[in-house]
Amino acid sequence: MRIAAPLLVVLLTACSATPEPPRHPIASAPTSATAQTAPRDDLAGLSNFAQVSPVLYRGAQPTAVGFRTLKALGVRTIVNLRSAHSDRETIAGLGLRYVELPSQAWNPQSEVVAQVLAIVRDPANAPVFVHCQHGADRTGYTIASYRIVEQGWDKDSALRELRRFGFHAVWGAIPSFITELDAPTMRERVRHTRPPGVALP
């Protein structure tokens, strides 16, 4: 049986062509259309908990059981934003890295944000769990800043997520801080920020 010359050329070309490997899009910051709020969850010893990204978790103050849950999830580093509470004794012996960055809900600080983002950027620390007392206000503005600076979220999306995790409106300085946050400036600041000492308790 004879195959017409034009068809033969097409078949030979198709058979000899090297299959193109699947293309993986270059990682880029999400836009407001793709920004998706992390689903809030409660696990053993953990409340107001969520996975923000593959390298970052958030939540309220964990119990002793909660810290063991975090360890089981593969978390390496705990960042405590509370100003009058330490987790050192509770997590002793778990092999978790630990950092205290005392902060206040009524006075969001760029320096705290820069230090947290610098900690998260270091692969040796990840995954990182950030918490305050309720996981809503101090944790909320820190995570909102991460969304804007590191993931390219628009500010409205970051503010919606802030409120979904229980932000208390009495702390009016927090939405103002997020609204006024300049992502390029903060990115540059993080690049030059030396993370605080991360150590086992």
Describe this structure in words.
By secondary structure, the protein is of the alpha/beta class. The protein is built from 8 helices and 6 strands; from the N terminus they run αβββαβαβαβαααα. It has a 6-stranded mixed sheet, sandwiched between helices.
What labels would you give this structure?
201 residues; 13% strand; alpha/beta; 8 helices; globular; 6 strands; 6-stranded mixed beta sheet; disordered N terminus
Please provide a brief summary of the model.
With 201 residues, the protein is of the alpha/beta class. It contains eight helices and six strands.
Beta percentage is 5-15%
Radius of gyration: 23 Å
Largest sheet: 6 strands, mixed
Q: In which range does the helix fraction lie?
A: 25-40%
What's the SSE blueprint?
Blueprint: H1 5-16, E1 41-43, E2 46-53, E3 56-59, H2 64-73, E4 77-80, H3 88-91, E5 97-100, H4 110-121, E6 128-131, H5 138-151, H6 155-164, H7 173-180, H8 183-191
Parallel strand pairs: 3-6, 4-5, 4-6
Antiparallel strand pairs: 1-2, 2-3
Helix pairs in contact: 4-5, 4-8, 5-6, 5-7, 5-8
